[in-house]
Design goal:
Length: 109
């Protein structure tokens, strides 16, 4: 679900203190975006909104979430009706795991 190697890479790039700030900013931006998608998923902006959350999540290694976003982006481009509930569930799971930290024995190579 999470690319722990990407998390470690980002943590090394920005430093431990700044990583906490990056994570807080990510969570804040994602909370806003997910609330907007949940409350008022504008079909005209759906592709752009999905693209935004996918890009933000990609930086933190949320690979399953990113894959789901990409599939939904493609569907939105073709005008397909998009059920966002799997996206919300996947984000909640990824957020919980990310906040819990790297699991013991995780392969980060």
């Amino acid at each position: 679900m999470i690319d722990w190697a990407r998390v470690a890479e980002l943590r090394a790039e920005v430093g431990e203190d700044a990583f906490g700030e990056v994570l807080d900013l990510f969570l804040e931006e994602m909370a806003d975006a997910m609330a907007r998608l949940s409350a008022d998923p504008d079909p005209a902006r759906l592709r752009d909104d999905l693209h935004f959350v996918r890009g933000a999540a990609l930086n933190l290694g949320l690979k399953e979430f990113c894959s789901l976003c990409q599939s939904m982006e493609h569907g939105a481009m073709t005008g397909a009706e998009i059920d966002l509930s799997p996206l919300f569930a996947c984000y909640r799971d990824a957020q919980r795991i990310l906040l819990a930290g790297q699991p013991a024995g995780a392969d980060i190579a």
